[in-house]
Specification:
alpha+beta, four-stranded antiparallel β-sheet, 28% helix, globular
């Protein structure tokens, strides 16, 4: 089962980000209901490992965090592959991510060692041989890149399963872990 842990966004933030992303002329937009901030991508995991992860997170005290979206950017340099809303990397957010990753490792999940750049994916761009997508992304970022949204405090961490479809992935919430130390099944 392909899964990840992340923070959900309030509906108002999802709708605002979707409206702004709709102004991008290239790429595949992320549906608002799929927008989230990933804390740990867990890849494919068997049920017994997910049960162990659930036990780890259910017993953890997960401190609340504040999420502040400050600007738009892209990954991929001259060949952008992803357009995202940038999230301020506050120390409490990094600490929560580290706590979640430690719980995943204790459950037996091997995680990659990527640098944490908190963000919310808005669109994935298409292969671009003529530079058309790169120019469109640059134009979009020049026009919309200064976006900021009011800070919000997610109420939980979610364990989502990713289902692949031809028109893009669908995320199914499997469990949630309130940011006060107790867990509830989805």
């Amino acid at each position: 089962m392909r899964v990840f842990l992340g923070l959900p966004l309030p509906e108002a933030a999802q709708l605002t980000l979707a409206r702004v992303a709709g102004r991008l002329d290239v790429g595949r937009m992320v549906p608002p209901e799929n927008m989230h901030l990933t804390l740990a991508f867990l890849d494919d995991q068997p049920f017994d490992i997910l049960d162990a992860l659930h036990a780890e997170l259910e017993s953890a005290h997960l401190d609340p965090v504040s999420i502040k979206i400050e600007g738009l950017a892209s990954f991929g340099g001259a060949k952008p592959r992803l357009v995202f809303a940038d999230v301020r990397p506050d120390p409490p957010l990094k600490a929560l991510r580290d706590q979640v990753r430690r719980a995943a490792r204790r459950a037996g999940i091997a995680l990659s060692h990527e640098r944490f750049h908190p963000h919310i994916t808005l669109a994935r761009t298409v292969p671009d041989r003529a530079g058309v997508a790169a120019a469109a992304v640059e134009k979009f970022l020049m026009a919309e890149g200064g976006l900021t949204l009011p800070a919000f405090a997610p109420d939980r961490i979610c364990l989502w399963q990713s289902h692949f479809r031809a028109d893009g992935p669908i995320y199914e919430e499997l469990s949630s872990y309130p940011l006060d130390g107790s867990a509830t099944p989805a």
